Structure prediction request, 326 residues.
Amino acid sequence: MPVIAFCMSSFAIQRSARPGAAGIKGWLLLVGYLVLYAAALFGMTRFGQFDAGDAIGVFLVLGVGFSLLAWLLTLGVQPVPFFVRRPALELLTLLLYLLPLAAFIAYGFAAIHRWVTTEPADSLAILAAKLLVFVAIPAWFIVKRSRYTFQQIAPMSFKTSHMLAMLGMSVAVIAFQVVAGRGWRDIVAANADDEKLLFRFPLVFLWLVMEVGVVEEFFFRVLLQSRLAATLRSELGGIVLASLLFGLVHAPGLYLRTGITQEGLGAHPSLFMAIGYSIVITSVAGFFFGVLWSRTRNFLLIVVVHAVADLLPNTVPTLRAFHLLS
Prediction:
């Protein structure tokens, strides 16, 4: 049933798909992803005592529900003009860059935590490193060699239809976090002064705009997904592969950072469990962002929605990191 629902939502997403090799390619990649997802989930539950319930919930809500909602909210939205000059060459550059990027995710963040041991210096150092490796370096390779302007590489629009889609998606992710996430419960448990907290929410939001919105959306959607879609000539194929790569890039970090736990994943996961988790949990979260980017080509929109999606679970940790919450 989840597979059928996912395929139905993907059919809706692929509004501009045309018969032929490009359209078939996207569907084949989606089927391949679903087979890989099912195999990973089966292996994790069979051999790793992994609870499949949470993973299926994430799949249904984020992968299917939010992707379909993103499609519905962007009906009639005219995408911002966007083009890729040299799809194959630019894609090859990015794929080669994924290797050192994954190594940095696995080792770089841990090294920064060892070298910078106090807050907020540690958080600022991590942000600077993320902006360097996810934004500045890959942008230099792509922009310099292909001569893009900023508006061409990361287009933005304040059109009413785009802003309404952004608002609708933001309300949906906040509602989901309040109902199903632990972020709101952590905020209530912190017993923070309501008035002070109200004024500090915007600070956390602005921090997340840079720390997760700009960093992740620029690399994985604006650069990687766009070039995958252009090379494959399939928007659906670009969404699928970008989401999968987004998940797999995190696998080395999940495996090597053994002191950090994830929900449903122990502190010392095997390599198999780390890769499986990156597929059945992490990759799924990339789908609805991919749909939003594919149908709007609005960098501002996806950055804001991503920051809003991370707002509640990151409010208490961020405020404490900057000594704004006891």
